[in-house]
UniProtKB/TrEMBL annotation:
Keywords: Signal. This is Porin. It comes from Seonamhaeicola marinus. Residues 1-18 form the signal peptide. It comes from the Bacteria.
Length: 345
C-alpha cells in the first residue's frame, strides 16, 4: 500500500506539474495553409485577365499561402514573428520570390501598463475589414477596398485601452507599404479609434514616391441576431486630388455549427480629373464549412465594370489587360467559381 500510494502521488504530481508547465509556456506556434481551384464562368480560363483585386488571381489549381507564427510572451514584453510563403504572401509583401520564406510580420511589444502597449517593427495594417491570411476572412477572394490600401506598416505604434469598450491607437511608420526602410526621409501617420466594436481609421503620408496620400476608413459590424451578422466597411482616399472611394456590406448567416453562408456586396470607384471614371460593383457569395481545423469555402463571384475602357481594372492598373468573354469579345464583367481549402493550427 505504501508503494502504491507513493507511485500514485508521483503520477498525480507529474501530471499537475506538466499541466502547469504547459499553461505557463511563453511560446506559442500557430499558422495556416490554403490552396484553391478557380474557373471563370464567363470567360476562358486562359484569357489572361483576372479580378482587379489582390490574391487568388489564378485559374486552375493554385497555392494561396502558408504561414507560421511564433509568439513569445514575457512578463512585460514579447515578440511575434510571422513567416509566409506562396503567391499570396509574396503579393502581400511585394516580394516576387514565392519560394523562399518571407517576413510578413516581425515586431516586439512592451506592455507599459495594463492599458498601454508599444509595438515596434512590421505589423499588418489596421485599415479595412479584411486581412492578409484567408483564415481570418469569411470570403476567400479579397475586396477592392482592402486591395487598394496598405497591407503592412513598418514603424512604431501605441495602443491605449481607454475603457473596456473604447480604444485608441496612434502610429508613426514608413510610407505606404515601405516595409523595410524609408529612403525618402518621409514618414506616415496613422490612428484608430475603437468604440464598442466600431473602428474609425485614419492614415496620412505625403503621397510622393507612390505614397497613398490620405485615407479615412470605417470598419465595423453588428450582431443582428444569434445567427446573423452584418459587417461594414467604407473608405475614402485622396492623393493630390485623385484616389478612390467605396463601401462594402458583409451579411453572414450561420445555418448550423459547421456551416455559414455570407455575401460581400461592394461598390468601388476612382475619383479625380475627368468625368465617368471607372467604377465596379462586385458581388461575392461564399459558403464556409468547418470540420475540425479545416475550412472548405465554395465561392461564386461576379464583378461588373462601368467606364473601364475595355477592362482596365482586371490587373489592378490603368491600361491593364482586357477581359474577353467565351466568344472572344471584350466584356465589362467577369464571373468565377472558386473552391478553397484552409487549414489553421
Amino acid at each position: 500500500m505504501k508503494k502504491l500510494f507513493t507511485l500514485t502521488f508521483l503520477f498525480v504530481a507529474t501530471v499537475l506539474f506538466a499541466q502547469e508547465e504547459e499553461k505557463k509556456s511563453p511560446l506559442t506556434i500557430s499558422g495556416s495553409v490554403d490552396a484553391y481551384y478557380q474557373t471563370y464562368l464567363t470567360a476562358p480560363d486562359n484569357q489572361g485577365a483576372t479580378f482587379g483585386t489582390a490574391f487568388a488571381g489564378k485559374s486552375g489549381f493554385a497555392l494561396g499561402m502558408a504561414n507560421i507564427i511564433a509568439s513569445y510572451e514575457g512578463e512585460k514584453a514579447g515578440v511575434v514573428l510571422d513567416l509566409v510563403t506562396g503567391p499570396r504572401g509574396a503579393g502581400a509583401t511585394f516580394n516576387t520570390d514565392i519560394v523562399d520564406g518571407i517576413v510578413n510580420q516581425a515586431y516586439v511589444y512592451w506592455n507599459v501598463s495594463e492599458s498601454t502597449t508599444l509595438t515596434f517593427g512590421r505589423w499588418n495594417t489596421f485599415l479595412g475589414y479584411e486581412v492578409i491570411a484567408p483564415a481570418g476572412n469569411f470570403n476567400y477572394s479579397c475586396s477592392y477596398l482592402f486591395s487598394s490600401g496598405p497591407f503592412s506598416h513598418m514603424g512604431l505604434k501605441a495602443d491605449f485601452a481607454l475603457s473596456d469598450d473604447v480604444s485608441l491607437m496612434l502610429a508613426v511608420t514608413n510610407p505606404w507599404d515601405t516595409n523595410d526602410v524609408s529612403m525618402s526621409g518621409e514618414y506616415a501617420l496613422g490612428a484608430q479609434l475603437g468604440v464598442y466594436g466600431q473602428y474609425l481609421n485614419l492614415y496620412y503620408d505625403s503621397g510622393n514616391n507612390g505614397g497613398l496620400g490620405f485615407e479615412v476608413d470605417y470598419t465595423g459590424g453588428f450582431d443582428l441576431s444569434d445567427s446573423f451578422y452584418l459587417g461594414i466597411n467604407a473608405a475614402y482616399n485622396d492623393n493630390d486630388g485623385a484616389g478612390f472611394y467605396g463601401a462594402a456590406l458583409y451579411p453572414q448567416i450561420a445555418t448550423s455549427d459547421s456551416f455559414s453562408i455570407g455575401l460581400r456586396g461592394e461598390y468601388y470607384a476612382l475619383h479625380g480629373d475627368g468625368d465617368d471614371l471607372p467604377s465596379v460593383f462586385a458581388t461575392t457569395l461564399t459558403g464556409s464549412y468547418t470540420t475540425g481545423n479545416l475550412i472548405i469555402k465554395p465561392e461564386v463571384r461576379l464583378d461588373a465594370l462601368s467606364n473601364a475602357d475595355g477592362g482596365m481594372f482586371w490587373d489592378g492598373t490603368p491600361g491593364g489587360a482586357t477581359v474577353i468573354d467565351s466568344d472572344g469579345l471584350p466584356t465589362d464583367s467577369l464571373a468565377a467559381f472558386t473552391l478553397a481549402a484552409i487549414y489553421s493550427f
